[in-house]
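Working notes for the structural subgroup meeting. M.R. asked for a predicted model of this chain before we commit to crystallization trials. I am recording the input and output together here so anyone reviewing the notebook later can reproduce the run.

Input as submitted:
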Amino acid sequence: MANIAIFLANGFEEIEALTVVDLCRRAGLTIDMVSVTDSLQVTGSHGIEVKADKVIDDLDFDAMDMLVLPGGMPGTTNLENTEKLMENIRAFDSKGKFISAICAAPGVFGRAGLLQGKKACVFPGLEGELKGADVQMSETTVDGHILTSRGMGTAMAFGLAIVERFCGKETADELGKKVVYKI
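Returned structure, recorded in token form:
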């Protein structure tokens, strides 16, 4: 099974992060909630405190198959300002390993120059942040090793796209039905 890391910074969008964690765990994937600070306690953009599984300095990036960035403000900015995370996102991209982001967070990939010629989507109004991308308006966009999604309302589609990537379409569709998603 895959090993996935989802990164939490103060100000992250709770629904986007926790929906992905929930769906991946239901599918049997290993997903670690990783704080980008030195504390396991991370507060979301709506004041909900979450306890991460580990801090970034304890994460073995080499053991990860995918890195996930939830959106939210100032969470997205805080993620982008975490140099260790950005170094590893660039390394994953250069190796063709999976990176994914939702809401404002796909802009992190755009500003890092990772979306040149790639299809990607982002929160409405932030399309200019997807530097060099072929901007899509779909709920979730998959282009090779890069998955992007538009916002809190697309968190289920985004989470299921991640499940599909590692477990197949049938498993993702079955899980979607079990949680009464778009029946």
